[in-house]
From TrEMBL:
Sorted UniProt keywords: Electron transport, Heme, Iron, Membrane, Metal-binding, Signal, Transmembrane, Transmembrane helix, Transport
A molecular-function term among this protein's GO annotations: metal ion binding
Highest taxon of source: Eukaryota
Signal peptide positions (record): 1-26
Native source species: Lithospermum erythrorhizon
Membrane-spanning intervals of the chain: 331-352
Keyword Iron tagged: yes
Cytochrome c-552/DMSO reductase-like haem-binding domain: residues covered: 58-300
One Pfam family hit: EB_dh
Protein's UniProt name: Cytochrome c-552/DMSO reductase-like haem-binding domain-containing protein
PANTHER family (UniProt xref): HEME BINDING PROTEIN
Length: 365
């Protein structure tokens, strides 16, 4: 299946060599891996139902607080090699059913139809197993021949990867009936994949595993992308590719949603719980200077997990766009409630006066 070619190394460390049948990661030998993690960072997904629509547009996220993350190369998190065009802003919220993410990052417009590596790409990664580390995508020590749901139990990470090369901006990709009927996390239409991993070399679509496939798996993500330089708002079709002119300054938007909980029975999906923290990471690929990116050449928002709080209903008042709109809508709401109160008193009066009002039981209808 085509989507298998798209599964690319993620949070992969720079070099791996085989030694007596075990994968030995270079950082263990040279001690080169270095992480000045920002442990203060925490993203909160507040309960804000009915605010956003997954369409790739960020206007509806304006009142939601986000977090600006520096993008450093995942393999060598060195300030000097920071993604130059800007930080990645990430916002999250939930509506009690689904959790939503908005990823915003500045970048000149590049798009190459059908060539994922010449288009920007993003991924989210979540801790599933208690032992799963950010570094090495779960960090299970087994090699591809030996990693499975027994030997790597507890090291599972959940990954959502969106390669936009075959996705029309503003359209929804990810979960679709065709791939979900096949029982795996693939997406033949737009390469918004639902995957899991134990380490960078043991990474599969949900439902696909070395021990055998499980047809109960699903792609549970939905997502869309957009670039601020686009002029059309009503809807693109494939024929409009490349949708915008190359090199235009602007911002990329990637918007996602997923149910808080899924029907996963295999430790391949993170299960969010309202009121409880989760751990996540985000990655960004960009064809710098027009050069196609390769799987391990990505930026990351941190060199460790970032806390994500799915918070319970917030007591803080909902902030509205402007004082004026509050006044207007507040006054209107007050007027409406006064009218409805008056109407109900009047109806009550009528009913009590006409004591002969007949009550028709439903059964006789
Ligand atoms: C491992 O995965 C296989 C195939 O999906 C499944 O049949 C088996 O029950 C799983 N074992 C464990 C320990 O999860
Ligand atoms: C599992 O699914 C993958 C992808 O569809 C396929 O290549 C592989 O042969 C399947 N494995 C088994 C044991 O059926």
């Amino acid at each position: 299946m085509a989507s298998n070619n798209i599964i690319i190394p993620f949070f992969l460390i720079s070099l791996t060599i085989f030694q007596s049948n075990h994968l030995v990661f270079c950082h263990q030998e040279s001690g080169e891996w270095h992480c000045d993690e920002d442990s203060e960072t925490k993203l909160t997904a507040d309960f804000r139902p009915g605010i956003v629509t997954v369409d790739g547009h960020a206007d509806d996220w304006e009142d939601i607080n986000g977090f600006d993350f520096s993008l450093l190369p995942a393999l060598d998190p060195d300030q000097e090699h920071e993604y130059k065009a800007g930080k990645m802003t990430i916002k999250a919220l939930h509506d009690g059913r689904d959790v939503y993410f908005m990823l915003k990052v500045d970048g000149d417009y590049v798009y190459s139809d059908g060539n994922d590596n010449k288009c920007p790409s993003v991924a989210l990664m979540f801790q599933v197993g208690d032992s799963a580390t950010y570094h090495n995508m779960g960090g299970c020590k087994e090699s591809p021949g030996t990693c499975n749901n027994k030997t790597c139990r507890g090291y599972e990470v959940d990954i959502m990867h969106f390669s936009v090369g075959s996705a029309i901006p503003g359209r929804i990709y990810g979960a679709n009936p065709v791939d979900n009927r096949d029982g795996n996390g693939g997406d033949r239409y737009g390469h918004l994949l639902d995957m899991y991993a134990w380490n960078p070399h043991c990474r599969n679509l949900d439902g696909i595993s070395p021990a055998g496939n499980d047809s109960t798996a699903q792609n549970n993500w939905k997502g869309a992308w957009w670039h601020s330089s686009f002029g059309v708002h009503s809807g693109y079709i494939q024929e409009d590719s490349p949708y915008g002119s190359s090199g235009q300054k602007g911002t990329y938007y990637f918007e996602f949603s997923r149910p808080l909980r899924t029907m996963d029975q295999l430790q391949q999906d993170i299960q969010f719980t309202v009121g409880q923290p989760s751990k996540f990471a985000a990655a960004f690929w960009y064809p710098v200077d027009g050069n196609p990116w390769h799987g391990s050449g990505h930026y990351s928002i941190n060199c460790n997990w970032v806390a994500l709080d799915v918070s319970s209903a917030s007591l803080t008042p909902v902030k509205l766009a402007s004082g004026n709109s509050w006044n207007a809508s507040g006054a209107f709401a007050l007027l409406l409630s006064i009218i409805s109160l008056s109407v109900s008193i009047f109806v009550g009066y009528l009913v009590s006066r006409k004591s002969g009002v007949r009550f028709t039981p439903m059964d006789s209808l």
